[in-house]
Amino acid sequence: MKELTKGIYRENPIFVLVLGLCPSLAVTTQVVNGIGMGVGTMFVLICSNIMISLLKNVIPNEIHIPAYIVVIASFVTILDLLMQAYVPALSASLGVFVQLIVVNCIILGRAEAYASSHGVWDSIKDAIGMGIGFTLSLVLIALIRESLGAGTITLFPIESLGFSGEISIPGLVDAPARVMTLSAGALLVMGYLKAAINRVNERKGR
Fold first, then answer.
1. Whose CA, among 34, 59, 178, 203, lies 20 to 30 Å from 90?
2. Number of folded domains in the chain?
3. In this model, does residue 2 exceed pLDDT 80?
4. Is residue 5's pLDDT more than 90?
5. How do strand 166-168 and strand 152-154 relate by DSSP bridges?
6. Residue 47 has pLDDT above 90, yes or no
7. What is the mean pLDDT of residues 102-130?
């Protein structure tokens, strides 16, 4: 369970390890984007960790970083094509940041620091834990930014239930803080959240 839960708080990719900040700043203007980016990153994490764990004794040490990037890029291409085919609106909203998962420090870091020296099952647990932590962090940032910056919460639409996918927040939808939709708003939200986590950890240490 330690491997599954460490990415949620103890080794959270965004707020503790401070990795993957580009998508955290860019795609968290809506909750649906945070969910989509998080789930897509988790898919690539799991697949690449499995493959690298299986090939760790085959890949020469001299070329292990390029080999990892090729493996990651292959799964990112699969993810990109699947998103374009089945969720084109989300794919268009995320734009180039789907392809940039290839150079996401979280994925390459877990491949280098964990999957290359552990078994397949442990690597899967590590990827799931880190993926859940990354997704929850993106959703939290997006929830604060969208609710304060637009007065809405945007989720996946459900046509069968007549749900358009957007929830309006009374009071905020008429007078939103537009700065939260900008990059400065993302930095403010991330900074305050990291400060809160650091404060909690400091108290635990005492």
1. 178
2. 1
3. no
4. no
5. antiparallel
6. yes
7. 88
Cβ contact 35:94 at 8 Å: no
d(CA 127, CA 55): 16
Distance CA 77, CA 185 (A): 31
Q: What is the pLDDT of residue 104?
A: 83
Q: Quick one: tokens of 78?
A: 């699969």
Contact 189, 196 (CB under 8 A): no
Secondary structure class of 24 (helix, strand, coil): helix
φ and ψ at residue 119, rounded to 5 degrees: -75, 175
- Provide the residue type at 75 as one letter: F
Q: Is a pLDDT exceeding 90 seen at residue 76?
A: yes
| Confidence at residue 19, expressed as pLDDT on a 0 to 100 scale | 85
Taking 80 as the threshold, does the pLDDT of residue 46 lie above it? yes
Task: Reduce the DSSP state of residue 152 to 3 states and report it.
Answer: strand
> DSSP states of 62-128 as a string?
GGHHHHHHHHHHHHHHHHHHHHHHH-HHHHHHHGGGTGGGGG-HHHHHHHHHTGGGS-HHHHHHHHH
Closest residue by Cα to residue 74 from 91, 38, 99, 39: 99
Encoded tokens for 77? 């291409």
Q: Following CA atoms 54, 58, 63, 68 in sequence, which dihedral angle do they give, to the nearest 10 degrees?
A: -10
